């Protein structure tokens, strides 16, 4: 007899029942629902994004703890660390990987971002800064997040264009980390830095796409993928509000 049935029979006959430990076979009415209430998953994702943003000022520092980059290894470690510690870059690359995994060339399209990102970094190192880089980076989160949220599949041409365009500006921001080092950096440091930047971001993009498919997303319209896009777009909106907050407050109070 099922334990739940025995318990009900004992209660009806007035028998006292001691403390029961049911590791399994619980009554069906005691089993928690398998599906979260509507919207809970989205709220959790946005909460995680918000916490990440709150933590980013503390984490977005030099991966070497402020020490100057002097060797190839220093450059490599710094290149690996910067995209991970900079949540605006991390969220973009992850969303790009999700968008790329549903294109006809899931391995090629993220490479367009990597190539353009390295070029932007090199330009900044050479003293050529792209205008409004930080603003365009925020815009990139809104655009890539919106693309993934829409559930539409990018053509290979459009993916290459979008990824490469924003890659230039993300690279310019990365280049500022080495261009601004007092005394400059040597060639070995630069090579290590570029290798680290390219390798970690390509792995993040491919990994994000792979994870999305493992979670059951068979195409761009899958809810799992679109929730990821919503989170990234939300991060972009948050950062955009931070940018315009100052001018708005000044206009109101001035």
Short précis:
The chain has helices at 3-12, 40-59, 72-85, 87-101, 108-125, 133-150, 156-179, 187-214, 223-253. The chain has 254 residues and is mainly α.
> What is the ordering of alpha helices and beta strands?
HHHHHHHHH
Rg computed from alpha carbons, rounded to a whole number of angstroms: 25 Å
Q: How confident overall, as mean pLDDT? A: 80
* DSSP strand tally: 0
Q: Share of helix among residues?
A: over 70%
Please mark out the parts with pLDDT under 50 across 5 or more consecutive residues, or reply none.
6-38, 44-61
Q: How is the main sheet built?
A: none
Number of domains: 1
Structural class label:
mainly alpha
Count of DSSP H/I helices = 9
Please report the distance between the alpha carbons of the first and last residues.
78 Å
The amount of beta strand, in percent, is: under 5%
Q: Rough shape?
A: globular
Protein name: HupE / UreJ protein
Organism: Yoonia vestfoldensis
Keywords: Membrane, Transmembrane, Transmembrane helix
List the helices and strands and how they pair.
Elements: H1 3-12, H2 40-59, H3 72-85, H4 87-101, H5 108-125, H6 133-150, H7 156-179, H8 187-214, H9 223-253
Helix pairs in contact: 2-9, 3-8, 4-6, 4-8, 4-9, 5-7, 5-8, 6-7, 6-9
Q: What would your notes on this structure say?
A:
- This is HupE / UreJ protein.
- Pfam families: HupE_UreJ.
- Keywords: Membrane, Transmembrane, Transmembrane helix.
- About 20% of the residues have low confidence.
- The chain has one domain.
- The protein has 254 residues and is mainly α.
- It starts with a helix and ends with a helix.
